[in-house]
Amino acid sequence: MFANLVRVALFVEFLAWAALCAWLGAGLPAIAAGALAGVLGARLLVVGTTFGLSWLARSPRGAAERLGPAATAALVAGEWRAMLLNNLVWLPFERIALRADPPLAPVPCLPVILVHGYLSNRGTVCALARALDRAGAGPVFVPSLPAILAPIGTFADHLDRVVRQVTEATGQPRAILVCHSMGGLATRAWLGRHGAGRVAGIVTLGSPHHGTALASLGAGENARQMRQGSVFLDGLERGERERGAPCPALSVYTVHDNLVAPQDSSRLEWARNVAVSGVGHLAMLADARVHREVLEEIARLRAAAGQGPG
């Protein structure tokens, strides 16, 4: 279970920082404070580095999308906060961070399935799940796909089992898939293999549809598949051109994404594309503008199916 691995990794990291402080001669209170500062500072360094690299590989931006010093600081702080929550709470304690899935039982409207991305589990999308729950957009199912560094096709296989289970148990012939980051690529791979018979539409959030320059920093076959011009991505695009658009699609992305660069890589030719600004890759999952777009698309898809909002 990925949450267990994250908890072990955090424990080892705290011990390493504490050992360093002890080696420097710090007392017990200073050791505790230093270990905490090391954990927090390391993640600030990661966020700052990814923003710097994504700026170097950025898409062209209009004047309205350029941020001043205060807005840039807020952008970095917001993503740092999201990373801290994700690393220290959402990932390791996903059962506490997010409620259990609804019962697998008949429902009156299209179910929603949230699909997490790279090196994540269901905890990563908990802010989005809570927003959909508050808005009455349920039932919302949030699975943890068990593969970690496996090929994206393996994620698609796990997703196939989830979609079949949810649609068969709810009595609804189709589901709505809302996918963050690599989850959007896994969903496209699944659509290419199985078609859209069980899908009313998809929403992708910050998905690197045409790859990202930062994928070269990632580990695993799935990271290599997210590199620009990869065989995997070329195959996805070629299949979609040959078959045509499989289903209605909305791609929401941020022009200041710190992990997907160039940022317009998230634009999908057969989707309706919506850009937001001033928010990072993880922080967008808690952004009210993103929530609004997702909710409106869920309502649109349910209306097209002759159903109410929830």
Shape: globular
Distance between the termini: 32 Å
CATH topology of the largest domain: Rossmann fold
Q: What fraction of residues sit in β-strands?
A: 5-15%
Number of domains: 2
Number of strands: 6
Give the helix/strand class. Answer: alpha/beta
Quick overview:
The chain is an alpha/beta fold and about 300 residues long. It is built from 10 helices and 6 strands, in the order ααααβαβαβαβααββα.
Task: Please explain how this structure is put together.
By secondary structure, the chain is an alpha/beta fold. The protein has ten helices and six strands; from the N terminus they run ααααβαβαβαβααββα. It has two domains: 2-95, no CATH class; 102-304, Alpha/Beta hydrolase fold, catalytic domain (Rossmann fold, 3-Layer(aba) Sandwich). The longest helix has 29 residues, at 28-56. It is globular and about 65 Å long. The mean pLDDT is 96.
Question: What's the topology here?
Answer:
Blueprint lengths: L1 H22 L4 H29 L12 H22 L3 H4 L14 E4 L10 H9 L5 E2 L10 H19 L4 E6 L1 H13 L4 E7 L15 H5 L5 H13 L5 E6 L17 E5 L11 H17 L6
Parallel strand pairs: 1-2, 1-3, 3-4, 4-5, 5-6
Helix pairs in contact: 1-2, 2-3, 6-7, 7-9
